[in-house]
Specification:
The complex is a heterodimer of chains A (240) and B (123).
Chain A (H helix, E strand, L loop, with lengths): L1 H35 L1 H44 L3 H17 L4 E11 L16 H13 L4 E4 L2 E2 L6 E4 L2 E4 L2 E3 L3 E6 L2 H9 L4 H7 L3 E12 L16
Antiparallel strand pairs in A: 1-7, 1-8, 2-3, 2-7, 4-5, 5-6
Chain B lengths: L1 H18 L5 H27 L4 H25 L4 H38 L1
The chains are: A alpha+beta (240), B mainly alpha (123).
């Protein structure tokens, strides 16, 4: 009898321990769900990811449709233009204007500049070893100054209404986010552009001081893609 | 007597657990596997009581030994990037079901015997 009482206390103690640990574990698990939202967060994240993929698919489909419609328009224009001389003249004018506005892919000789952020140094990223929006603005300015005829950054065409903005850790060009590595394509005289861009004291040489990885290549043929948006205006009218 | 002790101690344990601080996420896996091992030991203990070969030394050593082994396996699995704790869960839960079925059988047989005896007395 005496021995049995002793056993009962041990069993009771173990039950006490088990119940306490179950309770602690339950409360901990609850707190993860409500406080840090481990499982809930991953669930909503998955949902968001799904939505993004769906939208991207949709976007692709729509842009394909747009492309086929544009081709159709081009064909129609050509067939109507072939009828009369006046229409043909208008058609050539139209293509010329579209080319100037950046609505068509253009190709030719030119220069390709690739910019990549510097490797993380021991003291972390500093301002000097990242490629910023203003760097891109300066490079584009220098390219146009050196006689570039068409410039694109990561296939975003620089047009008359293009803005280059900082958008956190990416850069916004034509309202599209682009990020490193930046591939800047410019059509123009390769030698002239190369000389201007790589001259000592030029902007690229200044950037090289910040350990930014820069590659400048002359190209005999390169394609600068067209501007995907539209030029919109509300206020301007033609002055008489 | 023994069931009363178990119930009272469990309630006390729950009361204590309510007031203890919660543990961090990285350690909760260990506590969870230890709880499974402990529950397995409890069911094993009840079964051995019914079979009348209950030994407190085996019970206590199994309670702590299984829990510690399960936690060590979980730790090893984390280091080796294998979910070894799943194996522990399967073994423990499987044993819990076996023990539960033994307990169930025991009580059902006991009750049905009582029922039949009553029937005999009535007739």
């Amino acid at each position: 009898m005496r021995k049995e009482k002793w056993q009962v206390f041990i069993i009771g103690g173990l039950c006490f321990l088990t119940a306490a640990s179950i309770c602690v574990q339950y409360r901990s698990a609850q707190s993860y769900i409500t406080k840090s939202d481990v499982s809930v967060q991953s669930m909503s994240e998955n949902k968001l990811r799904d939505n993004v993929l769906k939208e991207q698919e949709n976007n692709k489909k729509l842009s394909n449709e747009l492309q086929s419609k544009l081709d159709e328009l081009e064909n129609l224009r050509k067939t109507t233009a072939s009828n009369s001389e006046e229409a043909q003249a208008l058609e050539t004018q139209l293509t010329e204007l579209n080319r100037l506005l950046g609505y068509t892919d253009v190709k030719g000789k030119g220069l390709v500049i690739t910019l990549q952020d510097a490797d993380a140094s021991t003291n972390g990223y500093t301002n000097d070893n990242l490629v910023h929006d203003l760097d891109l603005v300066d490079i584009v300015n220098e390219l146009f100054n050196a006689g570039a005829e068409a410039v694109s950054i990561n296939d975003q065409r620089i047009t008359t209404s293009t803005a280059i903005n900082c958008n956190g850790n990416v850069v916004r060009i034509n309202n599209e986010k682009v990020s490193v590595p930046f591939v800047i394509k410019a059509i123009g005289s390769p030698e002239g552009l190369y000389g201007t861009m790589t001259r000592p004291g030029g902007y690229l040489s200044l950037m090289e001081n910040g350990k930014i990885k820069i590659k400048v290549e002359k190209k005999e043929e390169l394609t600068v893609s067209k501007f995907n948006g539209t030029h919109q205006y509300k206020y301007m009218e033609i002055a008489e | 007597m023994i069931y009363l002790t178990i119930i009272i101690c469990s309630i006390l344990g729950i009361l204590l657990g309510m007031n203890l601080p919660t543990i961090s996420y990285s350690y909760s896996g260990y506590l969870a596997i230890a709880i499974i091992a402990a529950l397995d030991s409890v069911f094993g203990g009840i079964t051995s009581v019914l079979k009348k070969n209950f030994d407190i030394k085996i019970f206590v050593s199994g309670f702590f030994g299984n829990a510690i082994l399960a936690m060590l396996l979980t730790y090893l699995g984390e280091k080796l990037n294998v979910d070894i704790y799943l194996a522990a869960v399967i073994v423990f839960v499987g044993r819990m079901f076996t023990n539960l079925s033994i307990i169930r059988r025991f009580y059902i047989e006991k009750w049905s015997k009582k029922f039949e005896e009553k029937k005999k007395k009535m007739s």
